[in-house]
Amino acid sequence: MQFRSMITAVDAHACGEPGRVITGGMPHVPGSTMFEKMQWLQANHDGLRLLMLREPRGYPALCCNIILPPTHPDADAGFVIMEQTEYPPMSGSNTICVTTVLLETGIVPMIEPVTELTLEAPAGLIEVRAECHQGKVTNVTFRNVPAFAVHLDAVLDVPHLGRATVDIAWGGMFFVIADAEQFGIDLVPEQGADIVRVSAMLRQAAIEQLPVVHPLNPDIRNVSISQLSGPTRTEGAHRRNGVTVASGALDWDRPSTWTGVLDRSPCGTGTCARMATMHARGQLALHDDFVHESVLGTRFTGRLVEETTVGEFPAVVPTISGQGWITGIAQFVLDPTDPFPEGFTIGDIWAG
Known about the structure:
single chain, 352 residues, alpha+beta, Diaminopimelate Epimerase, Chain A, domain 1, two-stranded antiparallel ribbon, 5 helices
């Protein structure tokens, strides 16, 4: 057999959100920082993202991560996150999947009962504390980059929806956050289509009406993800959320593009952004746990551990705790005669 490429990957999920982790078969990726490596991949090797995330090797809800040698001397490993439409600087569920894979496969030595390591994401250094028992990672807690609110109670004029009150916040990505009740939506799996439809429209309206730029990195700009928030449905949790990842460009005149992919987990960066807005309103103090649940009822526990600033914005340093599970190990190959070297999408399950 002859193949154009052979990629070794470990599939995992963090509280329901699937995160494939590429552990072998990558060429050299240039760049003096992980952010520069992310930019190089996006500009020069984006076919890998398409190959791994589109059919027949991928599916709409899947994320993918590339393990790379770190560029920072304090980091144990680096990783770049790839999603269906972008390369996010940071992702909580993917951080949990990457940590689980690194330790359970032995790429980074596991120390029981606790392994401490530092990961280098495009957003910066991420300190991780992994609880381990009998070769299994039972809980991952990571200290995220600072989170901050940009807009509170802003009003968007959303075509086909009307006026909506939203927050814009950074938690590793820029989120538009809105209470689901104002749209008559219940955050349950059965309403997944309505959640992603409204979320996609909010995201596009936020891009058009509330442009944002990260104060420390002008290459990071605009809302890229949406979060609907609602009351919890289980004892012990504080709020429930539905985070929608974009799956394509939205065209206001084409309802088939008003869609996206619902995050199966409580979303780590989304939980950080949500906590930042709550702290800005005086609703969440430092060192208080905030239990966030997904539409599946799975949970991440967040905590704000420090106040700081990011540019001109008051900010908070959050931690997120959750668990990941390995679901499979595979070698993905590309036959030189394969007619779909960058995969494909079909409108029955893909946006547009």
